[in-house]
Every structure is written in structure tokens, then in C-alpha cells.
Amino acid sequence: MRAGGLTLTRNVDTQAPDEQRSPGQTTGGQPSRPAAMPTTLELFLIFARIGLTSFGGGLSGWFLREFVHDRHWLTEEEFLDGLALSQALPGVNIKNLAIWIGHRLLGWRGAVAGFCGIIFPPAVSIVILGVFFSAMAGFSLTRFALAGAAAGAIGLSLSMAITAVRRLPRRVFPILIFIGTFIAVAILAVPLIWTVLVAGTLSVGFEYVRLSRHE
Q: Fewer CB within 10 Å: N-end or C-end of the chain?
């Protein structure tokens, strides 16, 4: 509006409703990934801390808590996709998962940070702890401590398994693949590579046929 030779303007918020959401919120009230991503150094330190403080294994459970539940940098679905991929690829599962998470967050820099953070600090510490436990192996307290760490790792792995099962599609074929994979690996001791190849091929083929029918 123009008055007395001056142009008067009114500030109008033209921002779309979706753009006015606070970080970590969507229009449906569901948590989403916040705008602020970690730096490369911060990501390295997070992986290093997890690797140095997670005794007895079960690191995937710590990853789930750190990156999904606490920091909300990944959704649960994204994390489980990465977990499935890391277990299907050759090599150490937790190393694969760290690289995948790092790449998902910061690209190749994040992948390098994830790999270095989860490998090098724990490798140095295990050498030091190995010397210590070799000297303390004769004490019963050492065996109790290791048994306690193993029990904690089992609990974390069980928690991770329950989370994955809850996200399993409620359809007959995925459930059959789940049961068949468990029987093949845990009971029949079928080599993992053959189990993954067969289960993966069947799953991809089934989903391709199912989606083709819906088109």
C-alpha cells in the first residue's frame, strides 16, 4: 500500500505449513530427521565412543539407540534397512553398518568416519585390555566380569531382534522367509552365504511379482 509517497508493506508469512515444522516433527506428528547433521569429527567420536564402551558385542543395539532413539538422525525403517544390508554383505556386520550409517548421514566423509571410529580406537584398546586380561586370567573375578559382559551383549542382541521382528511385514511370505532362515542357520547350520543368496533371491522375486500384479 502506498501512502504519502511512502510504500508500506506488510510482512506476510508465505511459508508452507510443512516448512514451519520444528526440527524432528512432521505434519502427522511423527518424528523425522532433524535439519542439523553431525560434523565428520562428531560422527567419528560417536562411533569411537560406542566402540570403546560396548563390551561383549551387541553394537547394533547401541547404534539403534544412538542414531534412532536418542539423536533421531535416522528413522527406524532406515536403520533396519541398513542392518539388513550390512548383514547380507561380506565382512564384519557392525563395520558394514557403521559405514552405511556414516554414508547415509555425511556421504563418503561419513563412511570414512564410521569405519575409522568403529575400527581403530577399539583395536588399540583391545590390545591393551588383552595384555591386562592375560595377566588377570587366573582370577575368578575376571571370568565373572566376562560372563556379565556376555550376558549384556545377549540382552542387546535380543532387543535388536525384537525390534526387527516388530517391523516384519505382516504377510505370509516374509514370515516364511524369516522362519526358514532361522531354521537353516540356527538348526541345520547351512552356510550363511547360501542362506542369504536363496532367501534374497526368493524375496526379490516374490516382491517383483507382487508389485507387478498391483500395477
A: C
CA distance 203 to 208: 9
Q: Which helix (H) or strand (E) holds 150?
A: helix 140-166
3-state secondary structure of 7: strand
C-alpha distances in Å from residue 61, one per residue of 29, 76, 124, 154: 25, 12, 23, 10
Separation between Cα atoms, residue 86 and residue 208, nearest integer Å: 22
Q: Which helix (H) or strand (E) holds 2?
A: strand 2-3
pLDDT band at 193 (very low <50, low <70, confident <90, very high): confident
pLDDT in tens, 143-158: 777 777 777 777 777 8
Q: How many other CB atoms are there within 10 angstroms of residue 38's CB atom?
A: 18
- pLDDT, tens digit, for every residue of 102-159? 999 999 999 999 999 999 998 998 888 778 877 776 777 777 777 777 777 777 778 7
Q: Which of 47, 159, 172 is nearest to 99 (CA)?
A: 47
Residue whose C-alpha is closest to residue 24's, from 72, 84, 82: 72
In sequence order, the 6+-apart residues with CB closer than 8 A to the CB of 3 are none
Number of residues that this document lists for the chain: 215
In the chain, the amino acid numbered 190 is V
Angle, alpha carbons 31-153-52 (nearest 5°): 80
d(CA 79, CA 63): 9
